[in-house]
UniProtKB/TrEMBL annotation:
InterPro entries (alphabetical): BamA/TamA_POTRA (IPR010827), D15-like (IPR039910), POTRA (IPR034746)
A cellular component annotation (GO) from this entry: outer membrane
Record keywords: Membrane, Transmembrane, Transmembrane beta strand
Signal peptide extent: none
UniProt organism field: marine sediment metagenome
Domain POTRA: 77-160
Broad class of the protein's primary localization: membrane
Subcellular location, record wording: Membrane
UniProt protein name: POTRA domain-containing protein
Amino acid sequence: ISLIGNKHFDDQKLLEGLNLEQGQVYYKRRADSHTREILKLYHESGFADAQVEQGLNFVQDVNVVNIEFNVVEGRQFRIGRVDITGNEQTQDKVVRRVLDEYGFAPGQLYNSDLTPRQGNGKLEQYVQRMTLAEEVIIRPVSPGNGADNRKDIKVDIKEGQTGSLMFAGGVSSDSDVIGQVVLEQRNFDITDWPESFGEFVTGKAFKGAGQSLKLALEPGTRVSQYSVTFSEPYFQDKPLLLNVR
């Protein structure tokens, strides 16, 4: 087992945790997974253009195969500017605080393993889930500045439907006629008061901070009930969940 071309990481660092030892039976599938693990370590450490290829040297007389990992490290990149587009309702800070949880912010090492070229990466899925977006695409928009080795990033948000209004009615077992109205906004902003009546009517107010508000009204001929539920997933801009009922 040998490595060629690795400078940033020594052999021990690249091979530790691979469960790869001399004398083991060679399986191509397992060896390919080792190649991917080495490449993943480089991508996580900012080497976005790194390449790892596996070379085999068969010694037929003794039924032995020597494995050689050829590494082309390339340059190590940090994140430059992060531009967020497509978020007409959702505030920038709602997206950035989710990125911050993964250390994906200006000045940090550019972890390209989180946003693979084929899309639907781990970070894209997480941002999509946390912002209730229909689709999220994160891509570098610059090849990297030769002077400071930085990549500018574009985060493109395709916003989804976050509000709903439901009406229902019926008769209970004791002949009480009841109704139900449920209003829910999953991208609520308690501080975004409308500047005009039109903003309130069109639903442009009270939106964009990633909070959740649910109003449930159950008027009846005998008994009426109501409930209000408010949720803030980033209390004081920290990943602390606040629920109020």
